[in-house]
Amino acid sequence: MVARLRVKLKKVLKAAVRKHWHLERMKDEGTTMNYRCEIDTAVVAENQESANVNGRWEHLKSTVIKAAELTLGHRTREEV
Q: Are 38 and 71 in contact (CB under 8 A)?
């Protein structure tokens, strides 16, 4: 008895690479003040434009991410 089999292998999805921030830089007083100023100016500039809670949350979230990118930066793979 002879049989032929066709096997389909499941595709493995790779997880997205998560970016890590340089949180050690927050120990520096100057970097901390720059980070706070970036967030404060963006939040004050919003000036309650949207009464929608979700809209305000998205604005705050993007503001924090942009401030972190500008002041902290990302760690390289070797530093993680």
A: yes
DSSP assignment letter at 21: B
Full domain range(s) for residue 28: 23-71
Q: What is the pLDDT along the chain (80 residues), one digit of tens a residue?
A: 778 888 888 888 888 878 888 889 889 999 999 999 999 988 887 766 666 888 888 888 999 999 999 998 888 777 65
Give dist(CA 53, CA 50) in Å, integer.
Answer: 8
In a domain, residue 31? The reply is: yes
Q: Is 43 exposed, middle or buried (0-12, 13-18, 19+ CB in 10 A)?
A: middle
For the chain, the domain total comes to: 1
How many other CB atoms are found less than 10 A from the CB of residue 71?
Answer: 22
CA-wise closest residue to 19 among 71, 70, 69, 60: 69
